[in-house]
Amino acid sequence: xxxxxxxxxxxxxxxxxxxxxxxxxxxxxxxxxxxxxxxxxxxxxxxxxxxxxxxxxxxxxxxxxxxxxxxxxxxxxxxxxxxxxxxxxxxxxxxxxxxxxxxxxxxxxxxxxxxxxxxxxxxxxxxxxxxxxxxxxxxxxxxxxxxxxxxxxxxxxxxxxxxxxxxxxxxxxxxxxxxxxxxxxxxxxxxxxxxxxxxxxxxxxxxxxxxxxxxxxxxxxxxxxxxxxxxxxxxxxxxxxxxxxxxxxxxxxxxxxxxxxxxxxxxxxxxxxxxxxxxxxxxxxxxxxxxxxxxxxxxxxxxxxxxxxxxxxxxxxxxxxxxxxxxxxxxxxxxxxxxxxxxxxxxxxxxxxxxxx
Length: 357
Prior knowledge:
Layout: H1 6-10, H2 14-23, E1 27-29, E2 37-46, E3 53-54, H3 58-66, E4 74-80, E5 83-89, H4 111-129, E6 146-151, E7 166-170, E8 175-181, H5 192-199, H6 201-217, E9 225-227, E10 234-237, H7 240-248, E11 259-263, E12 269-272, E13 275-278, E14 280-284, H8 285-292, E15 296-301, E16 311-319, E17 325-330, E18 338-343, E19 351-353
Parallel strand pairs: 8-11, 10-19
Antiparallel strand pairs: 1-2, 2-3, 2-4, 4-5, 6-7, 7-8, 9-16, 10-15, 11-14, 12-13, 15-18, 16-17
Helix pairs in contact: 5-6
């Protein structure tokens, strides 16, 4: 049975998934699919640290994973029913479906557990009185009376996971689209470049022009072969006027989102009369934007282990499926190595570019 590796975390959006699970006090299986559940306490340390830390940072994990020659370790504190809390190397954890393995997503502590827990908590609270109020769930008319919650099913019109995770229906019959997040710095706009091209097409054109200008300023020409590690991850701050559009999404992307729910993966609730208190909070889009602050595009390399020699080719003239320059392609297998995500933080030594006007 496969265990997690640095290469696993660098694929897809796995760094964000890992960070969300650790900070959200989710669980991993030890060793394999039948291993004992290890529940994260939210604390961690790198091997050079003298004390525990909290709030694992996505950028720090990425830098750690990309340094493939380092002997550093990432230790996660876990608790289990049969033992006291202890530190475990992340490579002891089973690679479940969230990371490309084969176990059930909800069983590993993924986002579906949070969504189903939230739906169950709301619907169970509604049952005795016919409605419930959640203090942090606000709209333009105040705190609505909620009568149901349900999962949004299916894919978006562009074939991606929809922006909306669950619908919450109030007593007026109005449905509110909610996107559920862990407490760590989450990746946003899960539809990737295909989705962003629908939501903010002009911004994505500027983004690719910014990246291409930077590469050319470094003397990199069409067809040049370089080491994958020679070009750092690139970060570009997203102008504030675009952020709301990205958070809300469009119907084609499975939106529009009206609220964000931010909380632990294990949803806990207490009810007093018609009031439901949760161990997470709802935010309107405006509130969430103020809470997070700045948002950044992050341009990183993916599937780097597909190139045994660690080489990639610079490509400007050939386009990806969205119609933009490929930029980085595997030198041996011609695989697209570029992944663009949105996050709300950058590492201390990040290479930050200014968006092309």
